[in-house]
Amino acid sequence: MGSVLRGDVGLELGQRVARALRAALDVDITAEQALIRPSNRDGADYQCNVAMSLAKKVGRNPREVATLIVEHLDAQDAVEAAEIAGPGFINLKLRREWLETQTANLLRDDRLGVPETEEPRRIAIDYSSPNVAKEMHVGHLRSTIIGDAFCRLLSFAGHEVIPHNHLGDWGTPFGMLIEHLTDEGHGADHEISDLNAFYQQARQKFDNEPGFADRARRRVVLLQGGDEATLALWHELVGESQRHFNQVYELLGIGLSAQDNYGESFYNPYLADTITELQQKGLIETSDGALCVFPPGFTNREGDRLPLIVRKSDGGYGYATTDFATVRYWVRERKVDDLIYVVGTPQAQHFQMIFATSKQAGWLDDAHTAVHTGFGTILGSDGKTIRTRAGGTIKLIDLLTEAVENSYQVMPESSDVEGAEKEELARTLGLGAVKYADLSNDREKDYVFTWEKMLAKTGDTSVYIQYANARILSIGRKVGREAPQDAPLVLREQAERDLALKLLQLPTAIQAAIDELAPHKLTTYLFETATAFSTFYNDCPVATAETRELQDSRLHLLTLTSRVLTLGLSLLGIGAPERL
Ligand code: ARG
After folding, report:
1. Where are the alpha helices (DSSP H) in 26-137?
2. Is residue 489 exposed (0-12), middle (13-18) or buried (19+ Cβ within 10 Å)?
3. Which GO terms describe its molecular function (predicted)?
4. Which atom of ligand 1 is nearest to the CA of 140?
5. How remote is the CA of residue 378 from the centroid of ligand 1, in Å?
6. Is there an atom of ligand 1 within 6 Å of 129 CB?
């Protein structure tokens, strides 16, 4: 997903350094390669570290390179001082006036300095993807939250995003489920309203009741053969599950609906053709009566090649077959450029193997990429996979309901919010906290789920950021007026300057979150911005500012901070209440 976002102060400085290098040493680098990083060392605002990385290449020592950059830097308007430190760091202190202009420009910019991509891509994102006739569990929570954040971030950047829900809605378990449904007398849907229990009963019968397993197998054949009565029962199961999924999506404020369903069943008509194509390309081998592919580069410890089975010896198709059909469908029929799969890390090897063979088949190439963005497990406070007190798997709907209930604890007692508004607020706080706790952790890592931590009013939580934003808006209400658009912005106090510098770094934070598909890059930034606001709030009175000019300027800073926090949270699927 080539990075093409541009537009903050660091990049502007990067461009100037790149120009200096061209003039001084005739080397070409991009603005990003200038390695400009925020820094508050020795009174600087930014540090440039390119001299160290370039020294070898140009055959000079780093301090020499740094000196040449400083000598050729055409940045009098922007940079007040450029000082070389240590082995060749360049500390850059910005001119106040320049910073004021840059910050004021944000006031007139709907996108707060974040440009749209110049190379929009069409991107299909596979996320959530729960299994029919099974209740969604916390494992699906991460996929749903992370996938939703990807959709929002990439759309905001100007890409065309196509979300799709790869429901587990096909295959052998459905024989068993449908037989059980016929036995129980469908229509009375109270049994399937507890999908987990329904599934377990069916499983129980499959293992113990004489004749049931055979009936179940015959059902699978009927289902795959398109038998009408069987399909009607299957639809009933899928429909009931969909109602459960929708409940969760609605509560979470996730845009997925039945329209986005591309379950395993959807690809059924494509499976035979997919296999034929793999065969024609010479990629299929027969092994013990099964048709297999052997993706290049995958072996076990003994050095034997690892297969993916695309057709079992009994003629049945499996999970991998569907995933080949999926890649082929989205690239060929839907003409997407990129595929993103938000699925737990245990499936990493499966996807690497699918992608390797898809490249051989020509479905993926330099212009059509696929990435698997895995994620770790949610742990309980005992460091093991989170469970209920009784030791069972936690149902997602229970967990989310608890989140909303718990959020009443963090509402201020003095709050004059009541009734439906209060309930809405509880949802925004509680579900925001669950999402933020998830997204603020490095995606690949496991994390421990603790209510106290995720609902804390201080620290790296959504609640802290939401409070900061609500405070800003309440200051505005207290002052009772807005600053005129053209009122000048002045950054005399250190806290004003630090806050402005943070506001100007939004594009970099969003870019990093997109480039690395790492939402925590954005949460970290939002937390730092809320912290910079807190310092500002302590040091710089607004309602009682000494002059009207100063008040105008500070109102501008508050407006921008609120806009940055609100936008940032919204890109993570988290609301920002106006009052708390
Ligand atoms: N239904 C699967 C599960 O719950 C996830 C499907 C992921 N997507 C895919 N294309 N395989 O584990």
Report:
1. 50-58, 62-72, 96-107
2. buried
3. ligase activity
4. 4
5. 18
6. yes
pLDDT digit string (tens) for the chain, length 580 residues:
333 334 578 888 999 999 999 999 999 999 889 999 988 887 899 999 999 999 999 999 999 999 999 999 999 999 999 999 999 999 999 999 999 999 999 999 999 999 999 999 999 999 999 999 887 888 899 999 999 999 999 999 999 999 999 999 998 889 999 999 888 875 545 556 677 788 889 999 999 999 999 999 999 989 988 899 999 999 988 988 898 899 999 999 999 998 999 999 999 999 999 999 999 999 999 998 999 999 999 999 999 999 999 999 988 888 999 999 999 999 999 999 999 999 999 999 999 999 999 999 999 999 999 999 999 999 998 888 888 877 888 888 889 999 999 999 988 876 677 888 899 999 999 999 999 999 999 999 999 999 999 999 999 999 999 999 999 999 999 999 999 999 999 999 999 999 999 999 999 999 999 999 999 999 999 999 999 999 999 999 999 999 999 999 999 999 999 999 999 999 999 999 998 8
Q: Is the CB of 323 under 6 A from ligand 1?
A: yes
Is the ipTM value over 0.90, yes or no?
yes
* Structure tokens given for 98: 């320049």
- Taking the C-alpha atoms of residue 32 and residue 104, their distance in angstroms, rounded to an integer, is 24
Could you give phi then psi for residue 74, rounded to 5 degrees?
-100, 85
- The CA distances from residue 4 to 38, 115, 322, 474, 503, in Å, are 20, 9, 33, 37, 20
User: What predicted TM-score, i.e. pTM, was given to this entire model?
Assistant: 0.94
CA dihedral 137→140→144→146, nearest 10 degrees, is 120
Evaluate the CA torsion angle 294, 299, 304, 310 in order and state its sign.
negative
Q: Which mutation among 347, 351, 372 tests ligand 1's pocket best, with the greatest number of atoms within 8 A of CB?
A: 347
For helices 62-72 and 50-58, the axis angle rounded to 10 degrees is 110
- CA–centroid distance, residue 260 to ligand 1 (Å): 15
Q: Residue with structure tokens 């002059």?
A: 547
